[in-house]
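Sample entry (363 residues):
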Amino acid sequence: MFCIRLLQKYLPLLVGTSMMAATGAAASATWVYISNADSQDISVFQLDRAAGALKPVVTVPVGGTAMPMVVSKDKKFLYVALRSQPFRVVTFAIDGATGGLKKLGEASLADSMANIDLDATGRWLFAASYGGNKITVNSVGADGLVGPVQQIVPTAPNAHAIHQDPAGRYVFATSLGGDNLSSWRFDPKTGQLSANDPALVNVSPAKTGPRHFLWNKTQTHAYLLNELDGGVDVFAYDGSKGAMRHLQRSTVMPAGFTGKPWAADLQLSADGRYLYGSERTSSTLTTFKVDPATGLLQTAGTTPTEKTPRGFAVDSSGKFLISTGQGSHAVSLHPIDGATGVPVAGASQPAGKNPNWVEIVDF
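Predicted structure, serialized as tokens:
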């Protein structure tokens, strides 16, 4: 009788706890979004870490040449820039439970944009135009929808990437044809860029083609990938002035490779211990070990991947790298060796046509 009473007393609590645990497990998911330029759609996958697999979920049409993307910091919205006319950015709402995308609206962009990003407040969208030699700012409403172009700023030839520094004070943009990064102050109240002093970070040697760049989490160093020679530059970063001082030059080109360099993307692991770069001619990923004290790089290994790997991303656990192949129309999930940080051979599966950008979102 005593046992029955105990069961009656605690059974609801046990059941409730079990249901909460099950609900939490069901609500936990990681979604992967791949933009496909030529099929004009977004491939949605679920990353199953336990199984080490990418599971197809849905394909979402976008009605244009889908290329650069960015996810809002609150994970509510995915923004996709279309590089076919009319040039525009599409706002999607992300369903955290299913990974699905619901189109909310479109807004005009000033040109074909090679890169887009959001400011720290989420109220402004930056964009860089390779063919238009310009950077721009669009407003973003409280509802997440992108609004009109607020500012257009001419740059040196072939603006390629634009990002705000982690502190939210300065904005930088690469000029592939001008061999520099332009440096800007940004006013989040007005959404206006104004030239910093110094206004440029020059990159040498000439004609290396500054392309993609990023900062480490501690905001002490910046890393720059150069498209035309595969060089990787390391800079010391002074966040109080928005200034960069060159420290080191390395390369993503595989040892002994004699083809024409065509470097593409650059990503850091979440813990900042490893830097990764993709190179399209050799279809390889290069891994660098990052010295936590100096920020300097040491090459750790090279991994074959999908043909013409334009874009890739590293998951938040640091255990997987997802690489797209513009030439293979496929995507690879590479497990990462925990001891070396180097991705191992990946499992390839079809994506859309000309996959080129990856965003990973944890819920």
